[in-house]
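Suppose a colleague, Dr. K., hands you the sequence of a protein chain of 299 amino acids and asks what its three-dimensional shape might be. Before reaching for any lab equipment, you can write down a predicted structure in token form. Begin with the sequence itself:
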Amino acid sequence: MGSSNKYTGSYWGIDVGGTCAKIGCITNGVFRIVDTFSTGENCHPTGLLERISELILSEDARPAAVGLGTAGLIDRPAGGVIRFSPNLPLWNGINAGEILRTYLEVPVAVDNDCNVFAIGAINSEQIPSEGLWLFITLGTGIGGTIINQGSIIYGTGYSGEFGHSTVREGGIPCPCGSDGCWERYAGKKAMEWYYTRLTGKKASSREMSLLASQGEIPAMEAFREYGRWIGIGLANLANCFSPTGFFVGGGLSATMNHFEASAMQEYRKRCKHQWNVSLLEDSPSAGAFGAASMARKQC
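The predicted structure, expressed as tokens, is then:
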């Protein structure tokens, strides 16, 4: 744990998402974002990781360790193999950890992006070290992490894929190969579709939030529908885990004031557990910070 005499630089964090990769570092206890690269479904992993490695070495000749977080099923015991990534199909089967270790010659830790986000929140004490908590990220998809007494529960390695639990048999097809997955009804595209269905117009979640704040009825109705599906999914999880409570993060969590009431109403219809859902302070750098925190803790 921590750096040896050989590795004396900063702890670096890489957050690879469906549209961009953010790179940051922790130096003397202070975190900063260094750069951002575009990704997308046609992004070639080896080329991107080589560019990121070059950036890190140009900033820090002797990094202490590197952490990488990305969506999908991450084989941690195999050193960071991405077994399946629905939003970055070219990354399937890639050993991202080994590629970074080859370029950088430093310890590397790789994990699912939601788990990485959670590690940062645990280390900064935003998520308590006591109790059983479920952390949910709301964005393009839905990520999940199970946290018990301050530690992540991995099961056989891939627990927390809450977004791919089925909420409607024979429902909307999902890139994971199933249909009716929770994230097809409570992800970003779903939220925006509810508004388009009502108005025939397109609007981003941010634009919808502004319209709802101004009292526009279709935006408010779209958020109510979205919240209903959030409540269905959370009730299923509460019935399965009986957690101390939930933390919610990710880009769409910023609109929670518009959908919390309908989510709570649906939740209470479907389970007897107390509604204990807290918004986790989020920022565009949360994933990279979590990845750097993971590097500092695990390497």
